[in-house]
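fwd from M.: "can u put these together and see what the complex looks like"

so here's what she sent:
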Amino acid sequence: MRGWGAAAAALLLAVAAGAEEPAPAPERDIDPDAIALVTRMSELLGKVQTLHYVADTAYDAVQPDGQKIEFGARREVTAHRPRRIRLESTDRDGTRRTLRYDGKLLSIVNENEKAYATVERTGTLDELADYVHADLGIPTPLSELLSPDLPKLLTDEMQSARYVGAELLDGKRVDHLAFRNEEVGVQLWIEQGSAPLPRRVVIDYEGSIGEPQFRADFVTWEIAGKAPDALFRFEPPAGYERVVFVPRKRTPPTEGAQP
Amino acid sequence: MKRSLCWLGVALVLGLAASDALARGGRGGGGRGGGGFSRGGPARSGSFETGRVRSAPGAGSYSRARPAPQPGTRPARPAPQPATRPAQRPADQAAQRPSERPGGGTENREDWQKHREDMQDDRQKDRDKSREDWQEWGDKHHDDWDEVDWDEVEGIVVIGDDELEWDSADFLMFSVGTALTVAAFESLSYGPEPACTMTSVVVNDQSYYRCGPTWYVKGMANGEVTYVVVTPPPGF
């Protein structure tokens, strides 16, 4: 009996020990070919000094009743490394905004409200992007896509990276890639040939309520053009009102702090 | 992750960052021109970085993930208190959802089917839980949060005209830093129940607007024009 008791105790201990073990990490499936294609794209985007693109973007906004409503915009971007960028967006509802940065001054113009805000800033586009994201609260979608760190991000953060296949997209031969982790599924279509530029991006937020999707179709790409300084320089439009940037709150306001 | 050429991404969000207030037709002043649809949500971010996605709910993504408003409940109550809102909002749990799905690249049709069913079941439970959490939070912190349509975007509380349906004295008490949409601001003095006669002064080349005891300046929050509650200007 002692033997059976010892065996039962050992079994219980083994079961208990097993219950305390952490769940095994999900199996990763990283196709090096997929990473290599992304790396090639990143290297190209990283070495051009001036680039310009037009993209049509859309995303799902999940409503309280669960219905997904699509909103979208056309974006036009001209960037000149390391310290100049101009971004123009036109929402489908007609709202137009322009962001300019010339290495000294950041400005955003809201044409519909005939208002603009400016703030003196210096630094690279990366540093300015950090400021806009962290301090002004403006999200920076797809920034990872255009970052030289993208291959590392995908390798480190994604559980799977796969090569779906060669496809034809808007008359162009493209490589279709798919990445996924617990939260998002990302699909990239990268043009084949000597200019491996992103042509389409789809992001599924599978870990979010309603599983909304973001889509971006790049209409045009120019990576060999020139960008005059005036493109990035801000001149207050006549009849527009100057307003202040509203930064993110660093700390919650104190109770009873009303004026 | 270090961002390079984030501006290319920023370009893609200019406009995506449009506040829900605009979706509600805030510019029209009536607050209904946009059909009352929310423009928020994680997909607005257009980011596939896991960290960003996790932070998306805090960017107002789930500010509308609540039960539908229940009009007709306009109790007299204290002013909104953004500072008392929980740091970890219920909807944030979306980032902590189960991740038991099969590993990528080893598709098994049956596994995936089961996984999809499980995920749908999980999502439904999460949705129900989220609503319960919101209801619980609202009951605890705000008697009628259903009616108050907060849009907390990266720490900036943006209030639309839909929120200004209660007694005028209440919305004179917004905290410093609270932002009102243009329509909400205009409804203070032009709505059916004007709260005040709006006045303005210019101090140090900055226009200040005053409604009762509250001072505002015109600002840009997330690319949208708003009126932000500030402390009184020097001399006032």
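replying to her w this: Chain A has one domain: 29-243.
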